[in-house]
Amino acid sequence: MSLTSETSPDFRVLFESLPGLYLVLTPDLRIVAASDAYLRATRTRREEILGREVFDVFPDNPDDPGTSGESNVRASFARVVHHRCADAMAEQKYDIRRPESEGGGFEERYWSLVNSPVFGEDQKLTYIVNSVKDVTELVRLKQSGIERDKLTVELRGRAVRMEAEILQGSRELEDSHRRRELLEAFVEHAPAGLAMFDRNMRYLWASERWLADCGLIDRAVLGKSHYEVLPDLPEHWKEAHRRGLAGESLKGEDEWEALDGNTHSIRWEIQPWGGPGTDTEGIIIFSEDITARKRAELEAQKFVSLADHSTEFIAMCDLNFMPFYANEASLRLVGLESWEQLLRTPVREFFFPEDQRFIIEEFFPRVFREGNAEVEIRFRHFQTGEPIWMIYNVFYIKDAAGQPAGLATVSRDITRRKQAEEALRESEAQFRTLANAIPQLCWMANADGWIFWYNQRWYEYTGTTAEQMEGWGWQSVHDPEALPKVLERWQVSIATGEPFDMVFPLRGADDVFRPFLTLVMPVRDRDGKVARWFGTNTDISEQRRIEEQIQQLNTGLEKLVRERTAQLEAANRELEAFAYSVSHDLRAPLRGIDGWSLALAEDYAAQLDDRAHEFLGRVRSETQRMGQLIDDLLQLSRITRAEMERTPIDLSTVAHGIAARLREAHAERRIEFLIGPELTAKGDARLLEIALTNLLENAVKFTGTRAHAQIEFGQTECAGERAFYVRDNGVGFDLTFANRLFGAFQRLHKTSEFPGTGIGLATVKRIIHRHGGRVWADAQPDRGATFYFTLGAP
Amino acid sequence: MTTNSRTILLVEDNPSDAGLTERALAKSRITNHLVVVEDGQEALDYLWGAGAWAGRDVADLPALLLLDLKLPKVPGLEVLRRIRGDARTRRLLVVILTTSQEEQDIAAGYDLGVNSYIRKPVDFNQFASTVEHLGLYWLVLNEPPPKTE
Hints:
The structure holds two protein chains of two kinds.
Chain A: H1 11-17, E1 21-25, E2 31-34, H2 36-42, H3 46-49, H4 54-57, H5 69-83, E3 87-93, E4 96-97, E5 106-107, E6 110-119, E7 125-134, H6 136-143, H7 148-170, H8 176-189, E8 193-198, E9 203-206, H9 208-214, H10 226-229, H11 235-245, E10 250-257, E11 263-273, E12 282-289, H12 291-309, E13 313-318, E14 323-326, H13 328-334, H14 339-344, H15 353-370, E15 372-380, E16 387-398, E17 404-413, H16 415-437, E18 441-446, E19 451-454, H17 456-462, H18 466-469, H19 483-496, E20 500-507, E21 513-524, E22 530-539, H20 541-603, H21 610-641, E23 647-650, H22 651-665, E24 671-675, E25 680-683, H23 685-702, E26 709-718, E27 721-728, H24 760-770, E28 775-779, E29 785-789
Parallel strand pairs in A: 24-26
Antiparallel strand pairs in A: 1-2, 1-7, 3-6, 4-5, 6-7, 8-9, 8-12, 10-11, 11-12, 13-14, 13-17, 15-16, 16-17, 18-19, 18-22, 20-21, 21-22, 23-25, 26-27, 27-29, 28-29
Chain B: E1 8-11, H1 15-27, E2 34-37, H2 40-48, E3 64-67, H3 76-85, E4 94-98, H4 103-111, E5 116-119, H5 124-141
Parallel strand pairs in B: 1-2, 1-3, 3-4, 4-5
């Protein structure tokens, strides 16, 4: 831009008003200029520092023994001199002296520096511009681990921007004459918008950038009022101008709708200016379009936020494979404790020693060659040393010029998948071992029946090879006669997906066919389609042999049973014959003894005295008792042998019949029968009548001494089961002897008192047992007796 | 009691029982002539005039045959079967008089056409009473079968 105004702007003022922190040094490091901002930030005054050596003004903090500030910055200056190019230091601790008025001492500060050379026309180094940025706050934030990523973005942006600014600006500072030109050129070409106004807001000067931003290119604005040129200026801006003109320094950020119709983010500063000791003569407005930067920061912020919250392993490293970024998840995954530890840890150390050569020498070069690459590899946990399986995906990042600037990775922990794979491999191996170890032959086939695997046992048994057997080769070990049926059934299974189950012979290596039970099960996929078939062939020849043996044994056993049954039947017949003999042959002599005794008594009555008659009476009564004994024994034997036929019986009616007979037989006695109504049961009518007769006869017999005999037949509930009972008010008995009650020939009373053979209750017991029931008694001497019986399940 | 000239044939191998039966009949005043044979074969010989009884008038059938079951040579039930199988003796009044109370014997007896089945009681008084009833019934009350042609 040409300076056509009659009023020359003061470029020193302009320079000193720049919002950045600039210090201009001679090559021997003496201070020739400083921006106001620089003075404010370093708590110095211009008149105190101009002409002095820079490290004289800014000495190291003597209280910080580890400081490297002066030596590092001195080295940077040396590099600028030596390399004749800018030298940047992203972060340098350099404490500054606190004024004596505030107690002296040092304040901790961190700086970001760019030292840029300014060359004269003879290409000789004339100045070094030291442009700095106070990053103390950021470093503190970074140290607290919160905003480290913001820092990365910030530092890079700053450094680049400042470098450009300084390079431009510092050229103007060669000498006082050149200085003015340099300043002119600096401000004119500064990447920021700059405009200088008088007290009436008339343009004294404006940079190209300003004019462009305001849409004022090619318009003669000098000498014109800003408000005339831009009549729609927002009121709050005018207010800011007024405050600037009143001597206030202001800064802020704002949205500005430029003439191109786009909304721009503007950072602005207003500085009042005036000659030394004078009132404000006008203002300088500095504005910077930070739209792109804002957007970039926002994007970066989004990325950082995304990366930070991602559970993926996200990290970046530079070309020396030193990390400069890693998200939380990464640090956690590999057990790194802090951001600092990460920055100190070369990427190679993330890997196991045996993998490091591959990563550095093969894998990373491939990334550079192809843009990105992926590998499954183990990371090493920094604390436990445990392997962490990763899908390690790496791509390289480029700088603005398109040159590789580093590597970035978005990787995933696949340890679980690897473990699952390993487990699967192990279980597969186990299965294979198992399949080869089982005594069955087994195999697998595809859905179409093509067999692709047999276990070892198959080959051992058949003496074949995998080549012979593959697919449908198995038919060669089948019996040709049985094969068509096997094929038919197998084809049906393949078509329907139904399990296959068949016994057929398979030829062994010894040329012998043995029967095999073959089971084939379909293995289905997720959609229910048959994926493959799993078959087993079990040699059942041994089983068959055993079955035949069992069959033979069974046959033998049946024969034996038949023989034994025949023997038993024969024995039974003998027993019957014996019983018949007893019945017939034993009774006949008894009748003889009785009959002839009577004949003697009758025919020789006169010759026999009373005593002889008594003896003959004894002979006869004994004879009759024996006859009774024989009859009872025969009945007991018949009861045991008799066929049972269960029918519904009305026991009440039966009991009434028996009672009537007994009353008649004992007409002289007073006997009362109490028979419950409708006592029905299922059983063998004849046997139950015998049992009931025995019980009632007993009751009649043992109530013989009672003037009024009471005999009751009824039913009751006993342990959830129906029980019948016969109760009398007779002489009863001592329960101590009850266990002898139901045995044959067992009597609890003297024959002289109560005659009997002792077989009656044994008979009752047999009858009840044959019905599946129980019989028991309850009694007390002289207090009557009760006999209970159940009849089992009907 | 009724006097009857017709014969009672008693088949009984036990002389004691035979004697008692005879005594019982006597006590009951059954005066029919009593013939005692000791085995089944002799009983048949008597009826059909064979063996020791050859020449006997077979038309003179006994009024009553008292048959024991347990007999030497031909058992009682077989004797009955043969009697019923022969036209001459088919209608003969046969009473089984036995000690056996076996159901199968009773059933077999009736199946073979016995007219009555009587069990001999051990008590002689009862036996005598039984024989009296038996004689009264079969020889007096019962209308005898007509002679076979």
